[in-house]
């Protein structure tokens, strides 16, 4: 009898272990800045996040949101406080907001080849009258993000927080140029710039002469998906499936 109980227990344990991967534990997923693009994963107002794949229940009907928060408030933002979406316009007060609302099934495991699974956070510049806008970020702040799953009764689950995300500093144009304007090297600098400009123009004329078909890098940029700045996808570079997927 004892051995029977033991073997039953072992079997049950094995079954549980086997089941574990299919019952996705989304809380261990950590959102990442993408490494899939050579440039542009961080700008002064946006960052590119890897789209979560095989993280959420792909047959699920719940909503998935991206929570964007100041790093400084994340220790106080417990999951039980994340059941109600916060509009971007409240960010100055709350220090966090929700955006990129989709259904779980909109983050599938597989994507077709010509689709780059990244999310462009902060890419919506015109937020007038847009609920839960993917609004531009501030270069001076440090952010963290997490995905939150909500049903119509509230909080269902959440991923872990990302690492702190520091955007690219904006060049302070006035403080850079003012000392130069005053310095005596200004004339020399102008002369050098003039020469460089002339050389540049000559190069362009030569290039045009040789033939515009040879400007191959232009074509490559055109055909690469990551160059797309389509804002209508509200932050994603996916070309087809997520069209009009973001709700509201
Ligand atoms: C979330 O990440 C932190 C480190 O950033 C880690 O200590 C913690 O265990 C993670 N939580 C889960 C549920 O994976
Ligand atoms: C941005 O992408 C580059 C190249 O893929 C990578 O080396 C860098 O670590 C990325 N930045 C972050 C913050 O992940
Ligand atoms: C995934 O979602 C479907 C539809 O809501 C549900 O029936 C199923 O139990 C869910 N699976 C998991 C592992 O939560
Ligand atoms: C995902 O792609 C792999 C091969 O690339 C395929 O075997 C698998 O069936 C696909 N899964 C889904 C859900 O489409
Ligand atoms: C911003 O959006 C509003 C309404 O959606 C529109 O009236 C306005 O013209 C837009 N502004 C710009 C600069 O696109
Ligand atoms: C949500 O925020 C946008 C600006 O980011 C604003 O235009 C809109 O009125 C806000 N909605 C509500 C209900 O406050
Ligand atoms: C540029 O720098 C000056 C002086 O350091 C500062 O007063 C100004 O606010 C800065 N401008 C921006 C846009 O950061």
UniProtKB/TrEMBL annotation:
Keywords: Membrane, Signal, Transmembrane, Transmembrane helix. The chain crosses the membrane at residues 186-210. PANTHER family: UROPLAKIN III, UROPLAKIN-3B-LIKE PROTEIN 1-RELATED. Residues 1-24 form the signal peptide. One of its GO terms (cellular component) is membrane. This is Uncharacterized protein. It comes from Pelobates cultripes. It comes from the Eukaryota.
């Amino acid at each position: 009898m004892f051995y029977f109980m033991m073997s039953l227990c072992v079997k049950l344990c094995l079954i549980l272990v086997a089941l574990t991967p299919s019952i996705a534990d989304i809380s261990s997923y950590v959102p990442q800045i993408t490494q899939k693009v050579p440039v542009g994963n961080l700008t002064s107002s946006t960052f590119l996040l890897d789209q979560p794949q095989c993280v959420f229940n792909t047959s699920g009907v719940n909503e998935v949101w991206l929570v964007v928060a100041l790093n400084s408030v994340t220790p106080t933002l417990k999951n039980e406080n994340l059941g109600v979406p916060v509009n971007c316009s409240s960010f100055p007060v709350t220090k966090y907001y929700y955006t990129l609302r989709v259904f779980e099934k909109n983050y599938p495991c597989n994507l077709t080849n010509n689709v780059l699974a990244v999310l462009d956070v902060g890419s919506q510049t015109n937020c007038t009258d847009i609920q839960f806008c993917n609004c531009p970020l501030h270069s001076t702040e440090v952010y963290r993000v997490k995905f939150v799953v909500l049903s119509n009764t509230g909080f269902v689950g959440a991923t872990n927080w990302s690492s702190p995300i520091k955007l690219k500093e904006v060049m302070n144009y006035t403080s850079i140029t003012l000392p130069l304007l005053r310095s005596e090297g200004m004339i020399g600098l102008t002369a050098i710039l003039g020469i460089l400009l002339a050389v540049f123009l000559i190069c362009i004329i030569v290039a045009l002469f040789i033939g515009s078909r040879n400007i191959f890098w232009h074509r490559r940029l055109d055909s690469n998906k990551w160059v797309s700045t389509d804002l209508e996808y509200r932050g994603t570079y996916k070309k087809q499936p997520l069209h009009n997927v973001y709700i509201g």
